Every structure is written in structure tokens, then in C-alpha cells.
């Protein structure tokens, strides 16, 4: 049972933040997968970046996307 508008506002914020974290996590993880798998997806000509840059940026995207997914699961807001 709700005790007031403050608790409703906090619950709404937690739900919004959770949806935001999951959405951003999947977008960033998708970018990382595309960067790391450009050779297999035949996107090398489209991405037009060096192989080292793609690997480093893809790994960073995977790490940050994993962190955002972890935050979305934890929901410590």
C-alpha cells in the first residue's frame, strides 16, 4: 500500500531507471558485438576503422555494457 506521493515517485524512478539501464546495456553490448564481429558480419568496409581500434572499442563497449546490465539487475538506486 502506498503511503504517499513520495513513495510512488521513488517507485516510478526505479522502474524508469531499470528500463533505461537495460536498454542502454543492450545497445552498448550490440555495438561491442558489431565492432568485434565486423569481420564475420562482413562490415569492415562500412565501419571503416582500423582493426586495432575496432578491437579496443569493442572490448570497452562489452565491458561497459556488462556494467550497465549489472546495474539494471541490481537496482540499487
Total DSSP E strands? 0
The percentage helix is: over 70%
CA distance, first residue to last residue: 21 Å
Structural class: mainly alpha
Number of domains: 1
> How would you describe the shape?
rod-shaped
User: What's the number of helices?
Assistant: 4
Give the strand content.
under 5%
**Oligomeric category:** single chain
- Give the averaged pLDDT, no decimals: 88
In terms of per-residue confidence, which ranges show pLDDT below 50 for 5 or more consecutive residues?
Answer: none
Largest sheet: none
Order of helices and strands: HHHH
- Radius of gyration (CA) equals 18 Å
Task: Describe, in plain words, how this protein is organized in 3D.
By secondary structure, the chain is mostly helical. 83% of the residues lie in helices and 0% in strands. The chain has helices spanning 5-36, 38-41, 44-47, 51-74. α1 packs antiparallel against α4.
Record keyword descriptors for this entry.
0% strand, mainly alpha, 77 residues, 4 helices, 83% helix
Amino acid at each position: 500500500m502506498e503511503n504517499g506521493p513520495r513513495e510512488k515517485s521513488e517507485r516510478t524512478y526505479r522502474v524508469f531507471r531499470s528500463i533505461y539501464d537495460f536498454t542502454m546495456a543492450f545497445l552498448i553490448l550490440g555495438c561491442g558485438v558489431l565492432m568485434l564481429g565486423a569481420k564475420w558480419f562482413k562490415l569492415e568496409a562500412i565501419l571503416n576503422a582500423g582493426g586495432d581500434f575496432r578491437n579496443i572499442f569493442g572490448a570497452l563497449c562489452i565491458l561497459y555494457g556488462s556494467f550497465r546490465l549489472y546495474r539494471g539487475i541490481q537496482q540499487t538506486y
